[in-house]
Every structure is written in C-alpha cells, then in structure tokens.
Amino acid sequence: MSKVLVIGAGGVGSVAVHKMAMNRDIFSDIHLASRTVSKCDAIAASVKERTGVTISTYALDADDVEATTALIRQIGPKLVVNLALPYQDLAIMDACLAAGVHYMDTANYEPRDEAHFEYSWQWAYQDKFREAGLMALLGSGFDPGVTSVFATWLKKHHFERIDTLDILDCNGGDHGQHFATNFNPEINIREVTAPARHWENGEWVTTPALSYKQTFDFEAVGPKNMYLMYHEELESLAKFFPEIKRIRFWMTFGDAYLKHLEVLQNVGMTRIDPVIYNGVEIIPLQFLKAVLPEPASLGPTTKGKTNIGDIATGLGKDGTEKTLYVYNICDHEDAYAETGNQAVSYTTGVPAMIGAALVLQGIWSGAGVFNIEQLDPDPFMDMLNKHGLPWQVKELDGPLGF
Ligand code: NDP
After folding, report:
1. Secondary element (H or E) of residue 91
2. Ligand 1, atom 34: closest residue by C-alpha
3. What is the pTM for the complete model shown?
4. Mutation choice for ligand 1 from 184, 339, 372, CB with most ligand atoms inside 8 A
5. Last residue of a domain, one of 89, 113, 138
6. pLDDT-derived band of residue 182, with 50, 70 and 90 as boundaries?
7. Confidence of residue 32 (pLDDT cuts 50, 70, 90)
8. Higher pLDDT, 226 or 294
9. 129-168: pLDDT as tens digits
10. Which end of the chain has fewer CB atoms < 10 Å from its terminal CB, N or C?
11. Under 8 Å CB-to-CB from 139, ≥6 apart: which residues?
C-alpha cells in the first residue's frame, strides 16, 4: 500500500491528484488536504468522475505545524506532497519530521514579507532529515523540476562538460482575459517583479527586472519575446553543476501583460508591505490576488501551447563542441480535457506526481534534503514520456546569443 497525503487544492494539486488516481498501482490510497475543504471536495468529485477513484479530503491550515502533524499521524501516509504555497514549506517539513514521513514540494520556501526565493532555509534541514532517516525532495515541478532533470540528463548522456545553460520558459497560451496569471498571482507577480539574476563565472550578476529581452522562435508557438529573469532552479543548478560558466533563465511575456504589470507596480498594487485601509492592515499584492481571476478558472478558455526546455553548450561525450536543446510542448486544451486544468498547472502537477511515484516506490531514496539534480534523471525522463509530458532533443548550430 502506498498512501500519500497531498496538501494544497489549487491547479497544481488538482492535476497531481488526478494523475495519481490514474496510476493506482503506485498510489493506492490518496488523501487531499487544503485550507478550503470545498476545493478538495470539488477535485475529489472530478477525480471520481474521470477515474472512478475515491480520494479522502480534509480541511487543514498547513501553517499550523501541530494540526498538520496530527493529520499526518491520523492518515499515516508514506509521503507528504506539498502543493500549497511556498510560505508553508518549512511548517510542512517540520510536521513531516514530527510525524516521521517523507516530504516533497515544487517550490522553495519564501517568507511572506520578503520577495526572496532561496534554498538556504530548506537546506538547513539537511541534518534533521538525515538523522531521522527521511527524504525531503525539493522542487519536483517543471521549473524547478523538469528543467533541472533535463540538465542532469544532458550531462549524464551527452556532455563531458557543460559550459553554458539557458532555460527557456514559453507560455504561448491565450486565456482571453485582459490580465490574469497562470499560477498563484501573488507568487507569480513577486517572481516577475524581482530583479533579474544569472550565474556567470562563479558569481551572481544582478540586472533590473525585465531589462533584457530577445526573440526566440519556439516550436509549436512561434516567435516570442523572452526576458531574462531570476528563477529558483538557478541556485541549485549553480551548486550542483559548478563547471557551468553561465546559467540563465528566460520567460516569455506578452506586451499587454507587461503593460498591466507596469501600471499595477506604478500605482503600488504590487507592494508586499502592509498599508492601512479603513483602519485595517492590508497587503496590496494580496488584495490584488483577491480581485484577479483564480488561475484554476482559466482552464476552460485557455488555448495554445507551452514550450519549456534547456539549451546546453559544451564538450560532448564524442569529443566535439555541441549545443543541444531538450524541451517539452504541452497543449492547454488537451491538459484541460484530461484533468480540468490548463497546461501551466498540468506541467507542474505531472512532475509532482512523477517525483512522488519515484519516492514512494523507493526508486529515488536517501536520507536528507535532496534537490532533484542529485537524483538519477533516467526514470523521471521515462515517466515524463509515459504520463503526458513527452520531450524531444534537437541539435542547434550554436549557443543562445546575447
Ligand atoms: P494555487 O494558489 O492555485 O493553490 C494553492 C493551494 O494551497 C490553494 O488551494 C490554497 O488554499 C492552499 N493553501 C494556501 N495556504 C494554505 C495553508 N496555510 N494551508 C493549507 N492550504 C493552503 O497555486 P498553484 O496550484 O498554482 O501552485 C501550487 C504550488 O506550486 C505553489 O507553491 C507554486 O509556487 C508551485 N508552482 C511550481 C511550479 C514549478 O514549475 N515548479 C509552477 C507553478 C506553481 P485556498 O484555496 O484556501 O487559498
């Protein structure tokens, strides 16, 4: 019996739970807990209708370590999959340690009062998980997640040495709204408005947010402007691939999205410090989230494709210099037809299911805190092909310019 507890009933949690239910041989008993239990129940109803599988649901405030520990003890899962928000990472890790179960997530911890993504807080749990004989697997989504597995796979099978690595994240989808984000708006806007940072010759180079762009012709999407950004997998890639001289992350944004964001920033709506409104403290960005469309509501109207991948240049195993591009294309409408969620949730929820499957089956194992780059990429890459995120590799003439 492989019992799993998923925490978080957003778009990503929904996809992960649907995919788990489609793989009953691995996930024999599925439990879903989240702050708003009606969202868990709606997912459970969809899972039942699509797969015939019954999942159990619970209301849980995962910021409350004692309540989370008690629920884990009551259910007795082998693994807790954290698909709530980055703010809950440490509390859920503490609860896993207290209850003696493995932990997994898709996004690194972020304090609420600082737009600051870094692994240091979670890496600090290394000794606790090692001494408890438990595994904490960090970042098993798409980016972070698949993009790091792509790099690890390229290194294992194709490169003696990688010199430069560029991650390209393109969402060519159109949801028909003036302004909406494809995943949690608060997290998305914090990420996009933070200064850009990339790794070059052993140090971080910081540049103003959205100040560098270039056009790239994405297969199945077409030419798109993509912008240099900081993204959390850069930190673990720089740590686990010390030979790489330059690592960058690029994300596509349409002009209308950027125009709205600029106005919202200029009027102070993206601030994360409290302001007093009618005698009550509110955080403008949290208020903005409340008035924007829920990402999960975009599923029925989103059309188009995502294309996310890695371009690596270096010395190939055959002794020649080469550039390889490995990427996945995912269709929003297909993702919606299969799970009731668009491709941004799908491309995160499927790798979350895969990481959980590998931990539950003991194919990935170990005691301590692990980033996905530290694990064998092959079983993960095989499962991507089998579970809805097939990838392809192409040789390019040279590295990404700029
Ligand atoms: P959503 O905002 O749609 O869902 C988050 C869910 O977590 C909601 O159901 C929310 O409950 C619940 N939640 C929030 N706080 C708590 C709490 N204190 N206790 C219990 N439940 C809580 O986000 P997504 O599904 O889009 O994203 C989920 C996670 O995936 C995020 O951490 C995000 O950063 C990460 N992500 C990772 C990606 C990757 O490629 N690695 C890409 C996209 C997302 P409620 O409904 O009550 O608000």
Report:
1. helix 89-99
2. 107
3. 0.95
4. 184
5. 138
6. confident
7. very high
8. 226
9. 999 999 999 999 999 999 999 999 999 999 999 999 999 9
10. N
11. 105, 106, 107, 108, 145, 148, 232, 233, 236, 371, 372
Domain extent at residue 207: 146-341+390-396
Give the Å distance between the CA of 16 and the centre of ligand 1: 12
What's the distance, CA 365 to chain centroid? 21
**Which protein residues touch ligand 1 with a CB less than 6 Å away?**
7-13, 34-36, 39, 60-63, 83-86, 88, 106-107, 141-145, 183-184, 187, 295-296, 345, 348
Take atom 3 of ligand 1 and give the residue whose Cα is closest: 10
DSSP 254-313: -HHHHHHHHHHHHTTTT--S-EEETTEEE-HHHHHHHHSPPGGGGGGG-BSEEEEEEEEE
Pull the structure tokens for residue 306: 């995502």
Q: How far is the CA of 83 from the centre of ligand 1 (A)?
A: 5
Average pLDDT estimate for 218-234? 96
DSSP state of 246: E
Cα of 7 vs centre of ligand 1, distance in Å, is 9
Q: Which atom of ligand 1 is nearest to the CA of 86?
A: 32
**Angle 37-51/11-21 helices, nearest 10 degrees?**
30
Encoding tokens for residue 75?
């259910």
186, 129: one domain: no
Do 21 and 55 share a structural domain?
A: yes
Centroid of ligand 1 to alpha carbon of 235 (angstroms): 22
Question: Across residues 94-108, what is the average pLDDT?
Answer: 97
Specify if 122 maps to a domain. yes
Asked if residue 19 is part of any domain, the answer here is yes
Pair 325, 178 in one domain = yes
The CATH number for 174's domain is: 3.30.360.10
Element (H, E) at 95: helix 89-99
Would 228 be classed as within a structural domain? yes
